[in-house]
Amino acid sequence: MKEFEYIKPELKRRFIRECVLTSAETLELLEISRPRLSKMIKDGKIEPAKKSGATSLFLKDDLLQKKEELKVLREKYRPWE
Question: Checking CA distances to 48, which of 6, 15, 40, 54 falls within 20 to 30 Å?
């Protein structure tokens, strides 16, 4: 943790507000269900940045990349949508 001590607390807070998402925010961003998110985590397709009990936090950049992957898969396997 010492490598992050030099970062100002307000910058840390800003990073968390802008770049870290909760499970609920992740569900909304990816447009998936909670069981689907659980399966993706279990299968290693999405990795939480931090998990504590029932709470998981995710990096927004990882999720935006996954959203693009899901978009391509949806177009391929569900062309009627």
Answer: 6
Beta strand 20-22 with 55-59 is: antiparallel
Q: Say if residues 32 and 16 touch (Cβ distance below 8 Å).
A: no
Provide the token pair at 63. Answer: 């999720």
Q: Tens digits of per-residue pLDDT, 8-54? A: 999 999 999 999 999 999 999 999 999 999 999 999 999 999 999 98
Identify the sign of the CA torsion 24, 30, 32, 34: negative
Of 17, 31, 12, 21, nearest to 55 (Cα)? Answer: 21
Q: Report if pTM > 0.90.
A: no
Report the distance separating Cα 1 and Cα 36, nearest Å.
33
